[in-house]
Input
Amino acid sequence: MTRATQPMHPATTTRPDDVPLLAMRGIDKSFPGVRALREVDLTLHAGEVLALVGENGAGKSTLIKVLSGAHLPDAGSIHIHGQPAAIGNPIDAQRAGVAVIYQEFNLVPSLSARENIFLGQERTRAGFLRHRDEHRRAAALFERVGVPVDPDAPCRTLTIAQQQVVEIAKALSLDARIIVMDEPSATLTGQEVARLFAVIRDLRAQGIGVVYISHRLDEVFEIADRVMVMRDGEHIATRPIAEIDRNGLIERMVGRKVENEFPKQHAPIGKERLVVRNLSRGEKVRDVSFGVKRGEVLAMTGLVGAGRTETARLIFGADRPDAGTVELDGRRLDVRSPRDAIRNGICLLTEDRKAQGLVLGLSVRENFALPNLGQWSRMGFVIHRREREVLGRYVQSLDIKIPHQDQLARNLSGGNQQKVVLAKWLASNSEVVIFDEPTRGIDVGAKYEIYLLINELAAQGKAIVMISSELPEVLGMSDRILVMHEGRITGEITDVAAATQEQIMNLAVG
Amino acid sequence: MAESKLKTTLSRFTSDYGMLLVLLLLCVYYSWVTWDEQHPTGAAAGEQLAADIVGRFEAPARVIVVARSHQEDAAFADTLRDRLTAAGLTVLATVKGQPADARAALGRAVADHTPPAVIACNQSTAEWGVFDHLARDFGPLAKTQILTPRTYWWPNFLKTDNLLNVANQIVVIAILAIGMTMVIITGGIDLSVGSLIALSACVSALLIRDVAGAEQAGAFGMVVCCLGGISVCAAMGLFSGVMVTLFAIPPFITTLGMMLVASGLAYIIAEGQSIYQVPDTFVWLGRGADLLAIPNAVLLMVILYAVAHVMMTRMSLGRHIYAVGGNREAARLSGVPVRRVLLFVYTVCGALGGLGGVVMASQLKSGSPTYGLMYELYTIAAVVVGGTSLAGGEGKILGTLIGAFIIAVIQNGMNLTGVESYTQKVVLGLVILGAVLLDMLKKKGSHLFRRAKS
Output
């Protein structure tokens, strides 16, 4: 941020420690059968960034929902600027100056950035919209955020980073003093994250308190002033960021000592199994050729939009290539649909579990069986007993936490959903397993289990492609790294042990 | 934990069987309001009255049997006469006709000095004026008793004939609703089925008239002609499916177009007229009842529901249909042949529309392009009332059967209680809205439940 920012609110002129901007005390919240929050305290000062970390199910989301008025707490108090705040619904929260920016944005795609900002608080005169006034104010807000966005562009045409800026501008237009960001960086590229951090620092300088929720610990250390750890609905610790290190943080999150974040084991590497030659599709995938060997974990990395997912979809038959061939064990495959790919022993674990990996309205068992019905049916009739048996084994070996096999997939946590997706593909006995961002949105404990599973698959002689944007994961778990940029493979790193994040980033930016 | 488990079980029960409960309550309600005195008729009434008379009078007591001339009364009179004769009683006369005939029979008995001990009537003939003043009009018959079959109390709604009537009324919509349920579960809709009824009825009747030999058509010929009508509709369904899958035209628009096409075609081939040159045996499917007095069409409906239920719950294809509706992309990436599934459901829906047309043509013994008007809407109503979500991905075949019967029972019940047909429409519309509202509340409930868990 090059622009000098003036303090906009007098709050920054007083000592931030005198009266906390936000004080949540002794918050209790139970749901039938679950105690989601247990006497949780949260303190946020004006002009500070508080990182909130914890595994999935630790209670972060519930705590934020209490703050935003989506949930009523069973016990506890909320004070803002030392004044008791009665937050009974989202409108109370808005009035109290609380804005929450969720992972899934609340924007209307067909309306413009300006219209979204003023949605529900339209500027009117005698019932007519004051377009010019809105436009001017929107432009001013974007300037204050420090990111230029065309106020008249439909939100559908904006990048995810720009949409986030629209959300932030909307929060500012409501005079929000407390801004909560739930996993804001999950779908951003490296540069976009850097720009987001600049925006956050700017907000902090303006005296706004930011609660930053993230699974990415690197970011927490970069942006946060203090970090608060939650586990199992309880407040575990709050520390200034300088007084804690990465391992200490992970230990507090998982509640035990962590020996090694990436338990990589090197399986014996054999002959080429999957060979891709000259695969192309439009601008997204250009002349991509590579091979994966028996027992090898090949990481594909690059910036978002580099064409990694698109390449995987071509191999899997989800999209049709313009040109190029795919061979498995020396045999050329004619893959026209995912069905063909599955039959040939290729599977793809998609990045977006909810949209592409699971049918949320079906049960765990039905999802699990979907690609495997051929194996478990006779004359078109599904043998339910076989489904139950096999799923039972996977539930045990993958430690999937479900009350019963007929539980709807939508009622599972992210980690358990990912395990169900894993189970369904493991049961299909695929020879080539393509993981697209296998650990996105998954907590530390579940991540570790998925890494162990990748090791096991490699040991069984399968060929594994792991698409990942998380460089520590790429460096920690792969045997070889491919870097893509704008649809092409721009680099290959064979000596993973000596590779660095900078080396990858240089290749990734082209 | 135990509490939440109970809640789950309870909510699952209400979601699976809630509509069944509604249907039962409707049946109870209409049974209650149509509680009425019943007069037995036909052979059964004859048997019962004969036993009554034999028990009270020594052979060879004399009896005159009086009934009207139509079929049911004749059966009553003949059975009664045969039973009484077999028991050794003397049946002086068996009147099957007008009061004048009864007067003549009584006159003969007086003239012959053989006064009967009993005049055996049924409920209608007992009320004839001729019997009002026996002592005055026919002196010797002063001691003659008039006996009728005993009456009993029973709801009009629950009479076998009425229940069969309910089933017959709904059978076409219920058959259509099977295909519609599958289409709606995939997240689509089919507005063309009403017109397909007309098209299929016209094609089938036309083929029977022009190819199979009109009134002289044989059973085999008629079956082939009806299959022809059904095939045409299946082809129309397949065409809709192609439009939806290959060209990604929204199902609503596609089938709206096909609705007009099919209706127009029906008018063209029938030249705007009814086609009634079909043999009498053509009504076998629509009006016949071969097995245990169950109408053939109802039997067909039951079989189709059983097959569809098994397919949707036990077969891969059924699982695929749910998956396509629940999340098309996830289904495709899991290896489900999405296009084939969609082509299948639209073709089946078309074919069942055609079958519905054949049933209706058979019921009415003719084919006409005016058949099936608004049937697509009643069919969708049956599916929705049966608990299938228009958003796709969920729904049950047997729920649809219950939904169809709820509509039929309400219509029938309103007929029995004398609600006029304009009011019936209003009530039916409100019932459909109520059912959807119930569905939404149920969803909202489960949504709250889900939020509580996360």
The interface with chain A takes residues 1, 3-5, 7, 314-317, 319-320, 322-323, 326-327, 329-337, 393-394, 450, 452-454 of chain B (CB under 8 Å). Residues 447-454 of chain B have pLDDT under 50 and may be disordered. The CA atoms of residues 243 and 249 of chain B lie 6 Å apart.
